[in-house]
Structure formats: C-alpha cells, structure tokens
Specification:
By secondary structure, this protein is α/β, with parallel strands linked by helices. It is built from 23 helices and 21 strands. It is globular and about 75 Å long.
Amino acid sequence: MAKRQTVAEQFVEILVRSEVRRIYGVVGDSLNPVVDAIRRTAGIDWVHVRHEEAAAFAAGAEAQLTGSLAACAGSCGPGNLRLINGLYDAHRSMAPVLALASQIPSSEIGTGYFQETHPDQLFRECSHYCELVSNPQQMPRVLQTAIQHAIGRGGVSVVALPGDIAAQQAPERAEQHALVTSRPSVRPADAEIDSLVELIEGARRVTLFCGSGTAGAHREVMELAARVNSPVGHALRGKEHIQWDNPYDVGMSGLLGYGAAYEATHECDLLLLLGTDFPYNAFLPDDVKIAQVDVRPEHLGRRSTLDLAVWGDVRETLRCLTPRLTQKQDRSFLDRMLRKHADALEGVVKAYTRKVEKHTPIHPEYVASVLDEEAAEDAVFTVDTGMCNVWAARYLTPNGRRRVIGSFTHGSMANAMPQAIGAQYLDRGRQIVSMSGDGGFSMLMGEFLTLVQQDLPVKVVLFNNSSLGMVELEMLVAGLPAHGTTNHNPDFAAVARAAGAWGQRVEKPKEVRGALKAAFKHRGPALVDIVTDPNALSIPPKIKAEMVTGFALSAGKMVLDGGVGRMVQMARSNLRNIPRP
C-alpha cells in the first residue's frame, strides 16, 4: 500500500504543478517538513538566502521577469515577518508571488506562545489572499485558491501553515482541480471602443503616455502613434517597454524625467494614458481631456479626472481601436514636440561629458553612461531606489531585450541585489547587473554572501558616494541642512574579495571602463566599488521648497537637471522623421 502524502509533500507537489521551480527563504523549525519535502522532490529547489526580505525581493523579481508564479517562505514569527517589505514590493509591482508563512504549533495559537504572531492578519494589506491552514482537510483547496489569486489578480498570496499541520497526513482523496498558470487577454466592450474612437477623432493634438501596462504592446502603440501623429511619453516603469525603436519618443515625465514629455502631456487636446498608474498627479494636466486604458479597473481615474475610462489590456484594446481610426494628416504638434525634445536633451548632454577624465570623485553620470555602453544587449538591470533610479532612468538604453527591475512603486531601499538573485536564478548565462547605492548595498550586504555561496555570476556596480544622496537632495530642496545621511564605508571591493568574489575599487574616471569590462568577463560574482561624487546632481535654481515632497512636484514643471546619455542620439535620429518642406 502506497504511503500517503503529508500536507507538506502535497503543498510542494502543487507548487511544482504550478511551474514553481524554486522557493527562496531561510530555514527554521516550523518550516522543516516543507524544506524536507522540497529536498525529496524533483523539479523544485530550496534557495538559501541570508535574510527573508531578500527572499521576497528575489521571488518578486523572478515573477516580474517571467509573469509566472514565484515563491518564498519564512519560518514562524520573526522569520516570516521579515518577508513583509519584499512582499509589499512584489504586490505593488503586480508580481504573482506565493509566500509560505509557517506558523507555531496549531494547538498553541492564541496563547502567547514563543515566537507567536498572526501572519493571516499581518500580511492582509500586501496580498490579495491571506489564509491560515488550521486543518489538513483545507488542503489542497486553500493553496490552489491562493495560487489563483496571485496569478489571476497579479500580486501576492500568503498561506500560513503551522509546522505540525504540515507534518500530518494529507486528506486521502483530496480534490485537485486544474491550475491556471497564465492570465487571459481582456478586451473592452464595443461601446467603450466606440467612445474612444469618437474622442480621438475629435482631437487635433493627441499624446500617448505609457506605463508598464504596455509590456508586449510595443508594435500596437507605435501603430496608434503613427495613425494619429502622436508624441509618445512614458513613466519610469514604461521606459523599457516603449522607448526603444520609437520615432515618436518625447522622453519621460516625473521628477526624474527629461525631454518634452511634460510639454506633450500639457499642450495636447487629448491625453491617452496607456497601462500606467503614474502616481505623481502634479505632473498630469487638469485642463485637457484624458482617456485611460488599464487592465486593472481600480486604477482607472484614481490619479486624474477622466473623460473616458476603458477597462482592457493595452494590446487588445489597441488592436480593436487603431484600424477604426482615420489617418491624421497634420504632424505639426508631433514635429514641434520632437524638436522640443531634441533641444531639451542637447541642453543637458554635457552634464556627463564635461571634464570627466579629470573629475574626482567620479561623475556618477559618466559611470552610468559607460555601463550602458559596456553591458550586454540582453542584460537585466536591477536598480536600487534613490540616485540609482536617476541614473537608470537617464542612461540605460532600452532595446526590447534588456530589462530593468526596481522598487519603482514601493520605493524600498536595498532592493537591487536581492532582485538580482531572482533574476540570475532564471538564467545563469544571462548578464545580471545590480546597480546598487552604498546605502542600499550595505543594508542587505549579507546577500553578497548568497551570491558567493550559490555561485551566482551577478555583477554589482556600486555607486559609492558615502551618503544617502536622494535623502540629502530632498532635505536640500526643503531648505533643511543634510543630517544623518553620511555613510562611513569600508573598501567594498576588499570586502568582496574577502568573501571569495572578484572585487575592484575605482577612484579615477579613466579606470571605469576597464573595471566594468573585467567584471563582466569574470565568470562568477563580481563587485566594482566606484567612488562617485555626492554632489553630482544639481538643482535648477527655479525649484522652490514647496515644489517637492518626496518625489512629487506640487507646483511647476521644472525637473532635476542632468545628462541623458545615448538618448540624445535617439532624439537626433527622430528629427529625421520630420518631413522637409
């Protein structure tokens, strides 16, 4: 007679059926039945990290890159509690992640037992589904429901499982239904398409503003822009999906923005928001017509007053929409925006080229531009929150194959290196670059040991300005003296070498390119510790203290000054698309 499965074995089997290939976490006694089941199950591995927060970040990055379910786990009490920051990030990034929060013995819940917390309550705000398995009979239905929520709604599901329940026998004839592992396309109703056609046909000047919801819809967006002669701007999360091979590009809006995106969104008759939940409504106009297309209906209209809300994914919506539109003949608005965009970029491009060979500490703009040139054409960049966001936004050149992952909505420090772990596990042969700030890197520096232990060939490019640069910037703009923002750092390259990895410290600009080349050539984990100028980012004199709160402008349109790398070449190229008289 065949031995019956335990709940833990059933749990792991269902994850394998759901195409989960690894679980990131830190082992602990309440997790032991599950970890042992993973050890004995083909097709799934346990990935040992040094901090559960990193486990959640790694799972979130994997899910963002694949669109498929990823998983992480934490032991009872403090163990699973440390998952919470990475889970918030995954949830707000709409990454399908299943988190196993193991629990104290079921008979002790509610008695103030050692390490007792209530994960079924703690994780509710950062999940679509969060439930406690208190009886083996709940399996496998609770887990299957959790998986459907994570995949179907795009975000986190949490299952709390006491260790003693995990070790018990699973129900003898438990029902297991077919699992959904991908999301469907969502097409708007005909009436909504009709209304959108009418709105666009009635506008003389149309601007498209694109977010991460345009992933997979590059061709459709370009076809729409060509049909209506529209400038195309983007939010930070839309950059990798929409900027490449785009003759209508006018840059990015937001505090980190550049080019003519702000003007294009404010000088049009109709602004069409495509797959963006752009949070900074101070950058959005309040005196033009606005239509929004989004697959998440709760996103419609929560940033600006809409004239039309369209519920559907961008690709399917545009496939229905564009063939019905009349070709617009007037290019004057598009051409004017393209010229403004090129002029704006020409005006700031010298910020990263002026005296770079002699300037020390090194201009971080220069480092980012060289990194963009030397990195692989299909590299995945993971980007720390703060000044690294600025350099990634302005210097990384998208091409349809590169990916850029960051904590762009949750805005957490220390996200880049843990996310690089998840990205590298997907493909050990692909170049993964962690653009880390010294503050973020040192916060979860233990995960560099994970890179070494797991022999993950992640390349950490450390922008080391010995400060929390973005916080200093916020204090400066608010009229406050910088305080509590200085980091006293070691030689991080020496730390890397002591850990058993490749490491090089760079203090002179002429050494930057050679160090990056050597790091990329190295087969294992590598760290380039680049000493950069903490005063690199200048502020235009017209910005006032009341204009900035965190990342949001409350008045005006001035943004941070700085270079734009190879994007100026793209803008120059796009000027050739303007017909000659």
